[in-house]
């Protein structure tokens, strides 16, 4: 059985993890009953931490280095004595395998999380690009249809004028392709509608009530454009008219008519 002084000499080796397997249980049992040795062990571990930081961090206090080196020297002196047969047998035993640092167990999980985040970002970018491409395709198809309507020799062109003309005169031009039921409207010099209101175009059939032909608004210059597909194709139109309706439009026109076919 070792005495208190011998346990004190082994504290520095124990703090560095260099104590042999036979002495560790004895020292651990002693630490459980000796408060002085426990405090000394904590002080040695603190000094070792400070020394570990000295390679890349700030210089540790000189007293910590001196204290640890003195403890190591004392431990080394105690191990220079001739070992007994039992000690030689213990020394011949291979050192215990060190446990892997805890952070190595978490490294694969962290890598998976990083990969998942990058996957979500790439997916979001893909969806954004696909949505933008779809919008471009719609705009291209709309532009192609407008060009086709302008070139269609069978399209019906009509210009609407304000019921109360004033300079510059507001105008609404319509192009109607009856076989397809498509209506193109181009407005100029037409004041913006009141708040929560919209302009609505009406197809005036050869017989029957006016039919909704789409809603539109104008910008600060008085310009506006609308492409509308009628629910039914082949309707014969004797004219078009424009009224101001509540958003998002009405099923029957609200008087008065603000734009009607010119003479």
Structure description:
There is one protein chain. By secondary structure, the protein is of the alpha+beta class. 44% of the residues lie in helices and 22% in strands. The chain is built from 6 helices and 8 strands, in the order H-H-H-H-H-H-E-E-E-E-E-E-E-E. It has an 8-stranded antiparallel β-sheet, covered by helices on one side. The mean pLDDT is 79.
Structure classification: alpha+beta
Task: Choose one word for the global shape.
Answer: rod-shaped
Low-confidence stretches: none
| Major sheet | 8 strands, antiparallel
H and E string:
HHHHHHEEEEEEEE
State the end-to-end distance: 124 Å
In total, the number of strands is 8
Q: Roughly how many Å is the radius of gyration?
A: 46 Å
Strand arrangement in the largest pleated sheet: 5-4-7-8-1-2-3-6
| SS summary, helix count | 6
Residues in β-strands, percent: 15-25%
User: What's the mean pLDDT score?
Assistant: 79
> Helical proportion?
40-55%
